[in-house]
Design brief:
This protein is 73% helix and 0% strand. The chain has 277 residues and is an all-alpha fold.
């Protein structure tokens, strides 16, 4: 239970920060020896459930925005087409399609070959360097929120193409989509909020399918670990999201890039003295 709680904290802390939650989970689950005596079905389920917990934090914090998109789902005399909920969710789907088209068919291959500390450390370091380069060349000084803007199809496609990079563990979905938002002309706050919403459709779909598959195949201790990880991830993510947006309004992203590079170095150094399993 303690290990499940620790990993839930790590997921909640890192899911929406540009530091790669998947990369951190790979590293810390290895350090904690969390997965050594568990079956693959539980491993997949646990990762999905704690990610779902973090995603539900977005649903909770942005419940008014989500309700507005439902109430104003269709264009009307008082709701322009680009302000309708249907338009917003179509843009979200457009952004999700590239990563889904590549990630779903090759999921097993990616997990088998890339889910290891060496790949994570390289991706963290390279991603950190690219974040600094992108911030210096692409970032707009614009603190408007997502509600104050209209995402264009062009921006949705660009963000979606950048999100494909996050299939590699250590790259970070948040980092890749924020950089994609910059490339499309969005400010950092709007790009970050758009990144939050991108997690909703894919994560809910994957979690639902995994729950159906594992409905009768987990023991009580595993269900308890899922609950602890889910709850902790949800609570921690709620605290992180607001603080992250406040940070982005005042500080540059390079602080996260520097953290990524330092963490990557520590992971590589640790592996030299204590080979990863």
């Amino acid at each position: 239970m303690l290990k499940a709680g620790i990993l839930g904290i790590i997921e909640g802390l890192t899911e929406f920060l540009p530091v790669s939650s998947t990369g951190h989970l790979i590293i810390f689950s290895n350090l904690l020896n969390f997965y050594s005596h568990t079956n693959k079905e539980f491993v997949d389920m646990f990762n999905m459930v704690i990610q779902l917990g973090a995603t539900l934090a977005v649903v909770y914090l942005y419940r008014q925005k989500i309700m507005d998109t439902i109430i104003n789902l269709f264009p009307s005399r008082n709701v322009p087409a680009q302000k309708s909920g249907m338009y917003f969710w179509i843009m979200i789907c457009i952004s999700c399609l590239p990563a889904a088209a590549i990630g779903i068919p090759f999921d097993d291959v990616v997990q088998y070959y890339l889910f290891n500390p060496l790949v994570v450390s390289i991706a963290l370091f390279v991603g950190g360097v690219l974040m600094i380069v992108a911030e210096n060349n692409l970032r707009k000084r614009d603190n408007r929120s997502l509600s104050q803007l209209v995402i264009t199809p062009r921006q949705a496609i660009i963000v979606g193409l950048f999100q494909v990079c996050s299939i590699i563990p250590g790259v970070s979905r948040s980092a890749s989509t924020i950089i994609g938002g910059w490339a499309g002309g969005l400010g950092t706050v709007a790009a970050a909020e758009y990144s939050f919403f991108l997690a909703i459709p894919i994560m809910f779909g994957q979690a639902f399918l995994n729950l159906l598959d594992a409905r009768g195949n987990l023991v009580p201790e595993e269900w308890a670990a899922l609950f602890v990880g889910f709850l902790v991830s949800f609570v921690v993510a709620i605290a992180v999201i607001g603080s992250f947006l406040d940070f982005l309004k005042k500080k540059p992203m390079r602080y996260f890039a520097i953290y990524r590079m330092i963490f990557a170095f520590l992971v590589l150094a640790y592996g030299l003295f204590f080979p990863w399993k």
